[in-house]
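[job 0412] stage=complex_fold ligand=flavin-adenine dinucleotide status=START
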Amino acid sequence: MKIAIIGGGAAGMMAAWQASLNSELEVYLFEKNQKLGAKVLISGGGRCNVTTGNNDLKKTLKNYPRGAKFLRFAMHEFPPEKVYDFFEDAGVKLKTEEDLRVFPVSNDGSEIVGVFEDLKNKANVKIMFGSNVVEIAKNQDQFVLTNHKGESMEFDKVIITTGGQAYAHTGSSGTGYMLAAKLGHSITELGPSLSSFVIDQHLGEELSGLSHIDVHFKSKLSDGSKIEFAGPIIWTHRGVSGPAVFAVSSLLAFEKLTKDAPHHVYLDLLPNIKLMELETQIFERVAQNPKKNLGNLFGGIIPRRLLNVLADKSDLNLEQNANEVSHKKLRKLVSLIKSYEIKIIGRGKGDEFVTAGGINLKEVDHKTMQSKICEGLYFAGEVLDIDGFTGGYNLQASWATGYIAGNSCLKNE
Ligand SMILES: Cc1cc2nc3c(=O)[nH]c(=O)nc-3n(C[C@H](O)[C@H](O)[C@H](O)COP(=O)(O)OP(=O)(O)OC[C@H]3O[C@@H](n4cnc5c(N)ncnc54)[C@H](O)[C@@H]3O)c2cc1C
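[job 0412] stage=complex_fold status=DONE, emitting structure tokens
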């Protein structure tokens, strides 16, 4: 039996690995690049956040704004701890950082891709580098694959693992959607996920590079549903970025973010203290230091650069003596710390990490990854309508679905 896997990224490499375990199968891995795992190599800033150390399945699945239910079976079969063992057994020493992200100890993602270099030595696997699959046709029981050079080959089964369309220069340019659509599949709306935001205020000079360990986001989607998220952020020259921003961006993947219709988000810049407590704390400092410059009373509360911006908005003069300051304006400042409005007018262009949306999950069997529409066709990875937050969740989903797809070929042989 001949199997074609289209795309040598995370899901395709794992599917090929599993399928190769059955020596009866002839496995062809088509990769348009001249190397495996181009996107995996740049993931996690080159360190490759390979999975999560979060081993509570219920909690893990909460990190997928789309596809959580579909993923349940695959994540049960090949959960983060098994992914961890898989790479360690293959000789890659891993570490789990405090925030539960898992990386190679060497901080070198090429070790992860290196594991799959072994596929080249397997007698029943052929890697077709530089082969861009442009068409898949089904002829009764056989699939006919054609590449960009017009060369065709026949296969019994096909696994599409072409990824999403983010960072298209890595090779993941969204061709899988077109290949699947031609075989009868529907593709859900596609949107950018895990991106930074551009905001309408020019705070770059004042705040660029300033980070907060914990900020609480609140906003409302255009369908009226409320979203909330807490985590670290960093101000950039054009807006905001960081883990919490990425997570919020995936919740806003299908929202229009424009100058004319900005998305309003409210930031609680000090979520661990209640508004009244903060107010009391600041008024106490004012009362105890009547002759001090107001600007010197916020040490340990908020960074000076942020204070400057907020004071400007509250019309407060930070050079004034504390006892001369208007209480009304001070209250305004406190309320801004607890609810600072930013208007999102766009995303960092082309900087999204993943594509939200993809192959309609209703058309795929979650236990085998086989198409319900076209027998013998399978999917795995980001090409599916599955995406996760940052923290190793996207690669985890690709390993897990790739594992299932590769195994299903093996079982259904
Ligand atoms: C900058 C960046 C950093 C990231 N960091 C992390 C991280 O640290 N942790 C994490 O969990 N996730 C991370 N992600 C997301 C993660 O890398 C992807 O979700 C994951 O790689 C998807 O795996 P995949 O196998 O589905 O697709 P991909 O890894 O994108 O692989 C698809 C492959 O298919 C090939 N291909 C496409 N079309 C064809 C065709 N027609 N014929 C032949 N070959 C084809 C492509 O060349 C590509 O090699 C990051 C993404 C980016 C862009």
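DSSP finds 13 helices and 19 strands in the chain.
[job 0412] exit 0
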